[in-house]
User: What shape does this take?
Amino acid sequence: MQARGIHHLGVAVEDLDQALATYARLFGAEVEHEATVDDQGVRAASLRIGDGRVELLEPLAEDTPVGRFLAKRGPGMHHVAYEVADVRATLAELTDAGADVIDTAPREGLFGLEVAFVHPDSVHGVLSEVVSTG
Assistant: This one.
C-alpha cells in the first residue's frame, strides 16, 4: 500500500463547540466542514490548520464508538487517517499484508469521503483509517 500522506488526525472530544474554540484560539484553525452524522453517532468538524487537517469528533451518545472511546480513554487522539488513491484496492493490499481490517469494504465516511478502518492491533495500538475522495 502506498499512502499519499496523512489526510487527518481524528481527535475525540467531549464538547465540540468548546474544542472548536480552543483549536481556533491556539492554532488558528478554520472549520472546513461540520456535520452531525447519526449513523456514526458523532457530531464532527474538519479543521484546516495550515496544510494539515484535524477532525474533531463529539459522540452523540455514550454507546457509540467515540462515546465508548471517551469513557475508556478520555479525550484525545482517536485515529490517524491515511489518504490513498483507492480504498477498495488498499483494503485488499492491507489484508494480503496481514492487517486485521475492521471494514472489509469501503463505506461512506464523514464529509463524503470513502473510508475503511484498520484494527489498532495491526498498527501498534493506533486505530488507522484509509480514505479517498472516491
Summary: The longest strand covers residues 5-12. The two ends are 17 Å apart (CA to CA). The longest helix spans residues 16-27. The helical segments are 16-27, 65-73, 87-96.
